[in-house]
Specification:
Shape: globular
Number of helices: 14
Order of helices and strands: HHHHEHEHEHEHEHEHEHHEEHEEH
Distance between the termini: 31 Å
Helix content: 25-40%
Radius of gyration: 24 Å
Number of strands: 11
Number of domains: 2
CATH architecture of the largest domain: 3-Layer(aba) Sandwich
Strand content: 5-15%
Structural class: alpha/beta
Oligomer: single chain
Strand order of the largest sheet: 1-7-6-5-4-2-3
Bound molecules: pyridoxal-5'-phosphate
Length: about 450
């Protein structure tokens, strides 16, 4: 029997073809004598690497249904690898002449996806740096007033505010893990709030803050609005959102700044976040001069509108290639992938709702499903969840754990002897999860019986 093929190894033929094309672009250059490389020694090391890497959890497989992890699309992987033979640096046009243009094009497509008709933006090493840049600009434009985000916002929001020396206050979330509008308005009424962060797709539960209501408050209280859609942004292309989430994504373009992570749901390798500003004039706040990097062009160098200096041109090349193959359009293949993962989450949630052994806090808004094991108390549910997590791993199903506020489970009537409930969490972010949903359920059942 043939062993299962997980890695579409034949795609390396395409890399070879593309490399030959790339090399031919430089045919005019005289050839260079290079020291001979010890191919045998390289091979030994490389095979050792392969054995070591085999200790990773199988993020590429549908039975990995834990954290936000999956490999990039093949076209992203190949384009990234191809560009490694050049290794452009998108700090300046001097270092990434072609890849900077590809970055600008790819980022403009993301801005359109987010609902911006004009924008300034660039790629970053990830969502944390992208959020940092957005809050850095917000701090400058709001005279360092208070930044608010829900207690379910990404933990880095508070930390990067501290790095920036900006006052940060968490606001309570509601039972659905969304920013609580009553609490938000109470805090706004006290004054001195400069910026509100709305998270469209929280990391723990995929909850979507009620953007339409936040925008209504903005017209009364006048604050800067930053949307952290690092995880959720691409879901605007899914066609099976509930109306609350749909209306939030439809209004993303009203935010002053937006973060979307192509390395979360954009099929990219790690090292690819994106920050977008609605008003291109914020570029002047980045203003600096670099005495040794900007020579070849009077045009904008991306390093002039980015806090990071060197940045991988390869990340831009991979993103450009992916969006070329799978345009970010409604009804396209890209959106179908998100729709499928979300369908898997809905289907599993239904099974749990129909089964007394489980308690779910609420129906998933995106593709992240959370649940706990029904018990007399929150502490007992937590212990049991941990056991199921371990038992599932023994069946080959990899789940994740999350500490969720006990208030999210109030409807189950468990004794509240703990502020949080250790819950199980499945990020069903691979389209294949849909076809595997029943098998995943069977393994959960097996783990419950163990
Ligand atoms: C992942 C995530 C971040 C942080 O992004 P990194 O790319 O991990 O630095 C920020 N906000 C949200 C909502 C996230 O899901």
């Amino acid at each position: 029997m043939k062993p299962p093929s997980h890695f579409d190894i034949d795609s390396t033929d395409l890399l070879r073809q593309a490399l030959e094309r790339l090399q031919s672009e430089y045919a005019g250059l005289p050839s260079v004598d290079r020291p001979t490389r010890d191919t045998k020694a390289i091979a030994e090391v490389l095979l050792e690497v392969a054995s070591r890497m085999g200790r990773e959890f199988p993020y590429f497989h549908p039975l990995y249904a834990g954290q936000m992890l999956k490999p990039p699309h093949p076209v992203a992987r190949l384009a990234y690898a191809l560009s490694m033979w050049i290794n452009p640096n998108n700090h300046a046009l001097d270092g990434g002449r072609a890849s900077s243009v590809m970055e600008a094009e790819a980022v403009a497509q993301l801005a359109r996806l987010a609902g911006y008709s004009s924008h300034l933006g660039h790629l970053t090493s990830g969502g944390t740096m992208a959020n940092l840049e957005a809050l850095w600009i917000a701090g400058q434009l709001t005279n360092k007033s208070v930044i608010l985000a829900s207690d379910q916002a990404h933990y880095t929001q508070g930390r990067i505010s501290a790095v920036l020396g900006l006052p940060f206050e968490p606001v309570a979330s509601d039972r659905n893990g969304r920013l609580d509008m009553v609490e938000l308005e109470k805090r706004l009424a006290k004054g001195d709030v400069g910026t509100v962060v709305a998270t469209l797709g929280t990391t723990a539960t995929g909850s979507v803050d009620p953007l339409p209501d936040i925008l209504k408050l903005r017209s009364d209280y006048r604050f800067r609005l930053h949307v952290d859609a690092a995880y959720g942004g691409y879901f605007t292309l899914a066609d099976n959102l509930e109306s609350a989430a749909r209306s939030a994504f439809d209004l993303m373009g009203a935010a002053d700044s937006i973060v979307i992570d192509p390395h979360k749901h954009g099929l990219q390798p790690y090292g690819c976040g994106c920050v977008l500003f609605r008003d291109p004039a914020v570029g002047t706040l980045y203003k600096h001069d670099s005495p040794y990097t900007y020579f070849t062009s009077r045009e904008l160098h991306l390093g002039e509108i980015s806090l990071e200096c060197s940045r991988p041109g390869a990340a831009a090349v991979a993103l450009w290639a992916t969006q070329r193959l799978l345009p970010l359009e409604k009804g396209g293949t890209f959106g179908a992938g998100l729709t499928a993962g979300r369908s898997a989450a809905i289907a599993l949630h239904r099974r749990m709702e129909a089964d007394k052994r489980f308690v779910t806090p609420f129906a998933p808004e995106l593709d992240i499903l959370t649940w706990t094991v029904r018990a007399k108390s929150c502490s007992e549910a937590s212990t049991k969840s941990r056991r199921v997590f371990e038992a599932a791993a023994r069946t080959g199903l990899h789940l994740a754990l999350a500490e969720l506020p006990a208030a999210m489970f109030e409807h189950a009537g468990m004794l509240k002897d703990r502020a949080t409930v250790t819950s199980l969490r499945s990020v069903l972010m691979k389209p294949e999860h849909l076809a595997w949903e029943e098998r995943i359920w069977r393994k959960i059942d097996e783990a419950m019986n163990a």
